[in-house]
């Protein structure tokens, strides 16, 4: 009987250690980039990024679960060309005055063994929300020697979306593609 109680106590301690609470990580804006790419008449690719972003990640390594909440400041869109930035912010495209933020929220991390395969969630843009799955091209956690050995988790993610789902219809009659490639590089510091 005594052995059984000890075994149950040990099993309980082990189970609680394995299923520890998720850790919270704050997005590091200096190592997080959100960019998009769209075909320009088959001749070139228009690219831009959002310079202001914030958010949090919750991640439970043992349980292979997580949550992501990333917000993009649409007024910070930067194509490298001021006139194009102004057009991107206009009512024609992002309508940044009316909808100053876009948001990606997820509570589903999909693993293949120990490798993060994708993060499934919802993108809210121009007041509309639709599902988006970000494919994980890279993902790891490491102790940062520059942050007093604090843990950082991050990766490179991408998705191709149909922008018309969010009412971003500019240029369709001219032959601009509906398809937009999103590329997210995210690093977040354990709190």
UniProtKB/TrEMBL annotation:
The keyword Coiled coil does not apply. InterPro entries: Lipid/polyisoprenoid-bd_YceI (IPR007372), TTHA0802/YceI-like_sf (IPR036761). It comes from the Bacteria. Residues 1-20 form the signal peptide. Residues 24-189 form the Lipid/polyisoprenoid-binding YceI-like domain. Gene3D superfamilies: Lipid/polyisoprenoid-binding, YceI-like. Pfam families: YceI (PF04264). Keywords: Signal. This is YceI family protein. It comes from Comamonas guangdongensis. The lineage of its organism: Bacteria, Pseudomonadati, Pseudomonadota, Betaproteobacteria, Burkholderiales.
């Amino acid at each position: 009987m005594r052995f059984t109680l000890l075994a149950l106590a040990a099993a309980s301690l082990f189970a609680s250690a394995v299923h520890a609470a998720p850790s919270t990580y704050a997005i590091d804006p200096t190592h997080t980039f959100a960019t998009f790419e769209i075909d320009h008449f088959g001749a070139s690719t228009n690219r831009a990024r959002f310079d202001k972003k914030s958010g949090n990640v919750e991640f439970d390594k043992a349980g292979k679960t997580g949550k992501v909440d990333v917000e993009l400041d649409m007024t910070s869109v930067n194509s490298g060309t001021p006139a194009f930035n102004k057009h991107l912010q206009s009512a024609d495209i992002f309508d940044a005055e009316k909808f100053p933020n876009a948001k990606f929220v997820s509570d589903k991390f999909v693993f293949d063994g120990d490798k993060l395969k994708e993060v499934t969630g919802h993108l809210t843009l121009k007041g509309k929300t639709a599902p988006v799955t970000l494919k994980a091209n890279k993902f790891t956690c490491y102790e940062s020697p520059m942050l007093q050995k604090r843990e950082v988790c991050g990766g490179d993610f991408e998705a191709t979306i149909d922008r018309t789902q969010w009412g971003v219809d500019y240029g369709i009659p001219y032959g601009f593609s509906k398809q937009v490639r999103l590329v997210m590089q995210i690093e977040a510091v354990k709190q």
